[in-house]
Every structure is written in structure tokens, then in C-alpha cells.
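Just scan my protein:

. . .
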Amino acid sequence: MNREGHFGMAMAIVFGVYSILDVKSIDSIFLGFLIVGLSTLPDIDLALEIAHRKYTHNLAASIIAGLLIGVLLESGGVEGLGFLEGFIAGFTAVWIHILGDLMTYMEFQPLWPLSKGRWRLNSSNPATRRSTGPWQPWAR
């Protein structure tokens, strides 16, 4: 998925959930925009020229991102936002990104280090769809 797709998907998910839950506080809205802004963070692997979707598109990376953003917000003195909100933003942004990338043809290990299974939802390439349908997730 491209950058714009990740931003759009993140906005739809975050603010869709906010709408359903009737979330209106300014701190929550700021947190939502922070999540959207961070939703392309896993693609830093492209800028670093390291293996794409190997180190930055998984559970471990989401925890590390959450911890880093949490520490930054805690030490940055943003009124109403601290470590917990930063952790939620970083962790959620990476998982929204992962969800978007699961809809592409390239398999990767989103649950690493808990699982080495390689996943994709296999919806974008009709030639590789299995008889179970386009949205059936499977691991190798």
C-alpha cells in the first residue's frame, strides 16, 4: 500500500471508531491525528534501505514504536498526553499500517516474534487467490 493509502486507511479507522464511540475531546482528536501521522512509520525501512517488511512490520516493531513515542510524549510535556497515550499512538499506528499491508501480495511476518508465519490477505492478485476466497488469511 502506498503512503496516501496508509494515511486514508488510518483516518477511516481512527475517526470511524471515534465517531461510533462519540469521542470528542481535544486530547483524543490530537491523539487520532498523531496515529494517522505515524501510520507510515513502518515504511522507514525503505528510507534506511533495509529489508522491506522484515524488521518494521511486526509485533516487536509496534511495541518498540509505542515505547519510543510514549517516552517522547512523556518527556515532551504535551499537555494531557503522556507515556500511555504515546504508547497507544505508536502501537496502533504500526498495526493500522500492518493491516493495510496485509491486503497486498507480499507476505511478511506481522506476529513476529510470537510466530514466524508469513501472512497476506491475498486480495490484490487474482492469479494467487485460493479457492477459499480473496479474504481468507493463511500462513506458511
Observations:
- The radius of gyration is 16 Å.
- Residues 83-102 form the longest helix (20 residues).
- The helical segments are 3-21, 26-38, 44-48, 59-76, 83-102.
